[in-house]
Amino acid sequence: MKKKQVLVAMAAGCALILAGCSSSKKETEAPVPQRKAESEQAQETSAAAETEVAAAETEAAAEAAVETEAAIETAVETEAAAETAAETEAVFEVTDETEEAADVVPETEEDFEIILEDESEDGWETEDDIWEYVWETESEGDWDAYWDTEDEEDWDAYWETESEYDEFDYTETEPEIIPRPEYNVDDYLTIEDDDYKNIKVQVAPAQQVTDEEIQSEIDDAFYYLEDYDDLVVKKKEGTVAEGDNVNIDYVGKKDGEEFEGGSAEGTDLVIGSGTFIPGFEEGLIGKEIGSTVDLDVTFPENYGVENLNGAQVVFTVTINYVTEIPEITDEIAEKLSDGEFTTVDEYKESIREELQSSYDDEYKSSVTNAVAATLLNMYSPEELPQANIDYTKDMIVAQYIDPYAAMYGMSKEDFVEAAYSMTYDEFEAEELIPSATQSVEREVILEAIAEKEGITMTDDELQEVLQGYADQYGIEVEELVYGQDMGYVRANELELKVMNWLTENADVEVIYESEDFSFTETEAEAAAETEAETAASETESEA
Q: Is the dihedral of CA 136, 140, 145, 149 positive or negative?
């Protein structure tokens, strides 16, 4: 359904640009005073907008879309059901079996009052009594008949009516697809040499997973166990130390009065995590568990809440206990992995592999970025196709600005001013145009290399690549490229193909640095050394 695809695409973009407030893992916790200020969020948003429009964007957007699609479907279906229940007389023909229940479906406070007054003989005293009657009819079959109409036409009619979704202009029309301007790369750059075949770059080594990181992952996973409270140890003696997971109650006051969002009970906080504003977590270190302390702290000047920016406040904090994770057993490992692993060693190894895979990907990205930066220094076109700069700039706006401005009911100018603390003209001059220009510059260089080396992206290759993405994310190819110009998609994938080829042929030196020494070795030497260390570690573990 096209409407759902629009919703999915919008939420996918949000995952790339908007930084949300961190929340505690317990449902009872109130919002906590965040250290991350609005300006820092704006910087993150700016970094997302500065991301060059390349194949990686297609991949990231697809991944974010998959992660959010289930939640969106649930929200849409739930809200649709609720709205439909309230508008049944206009949309459905109520059957005889359900007419009695439908007659008492309330829509306003006045409806409740009328029903309670008229039906008092039935023993209804509260709104809950009414809803209990409405939902607990003679049998589930009554409601099945109510919801299962003869065909889907009634539902289609409902969705086609005006609703709150129209606020975001979610329509059934196909999106306007603007074709990517074509150009002759020879008009802008001709590469005579072949120095690009053996580009020398230096990068830091891939980070290696530590036992502490694995334990941290295990500690985090504990929060999601149903019997979390029964498994953890709640220490109620001693003092608070860095890294402790403390459970606290707190009340925040400004000028002696409590302020909104500044109080909560039963909040879990890891000391040193930076979750709360500066001075809060540090102020708890060394304090007795079970004690109540006053913390004099100051909100950052750019915190993002007008009445709290730079405000001096006092938090009265009660330290309830410190949570300690017990030694993991095979039984707990099986719970933490949802039955996928039955031993501690298997579970820990799975965590190590997942983390290491992420670090290896970061390393590969650093090599690719180093190669791309070197290319821009080696070959710099004197002129670039202006139409493509404008196109890329418009694509950034369409993907990262317009949807979110519409989501908040704002113009793009107002959204930019709120998110970036600058006017739209300033944003365009300082962020959009430089980002689009660099993207097109890299595009021209890679296309020139592709032409010189005879590297192409055939229809079959493109379909295979896109199918691979779609399979990986569990969606159809049509959903993956929905609303995108295929010329734009093909150009992105060709760039990626050329970059992969250049990276594979690059001369990579791995730099090892510390306070005491610095040395380099080739990528092959580093890989061999890492493999030997891993083998030695496995042998030691088996022993």
A: positive
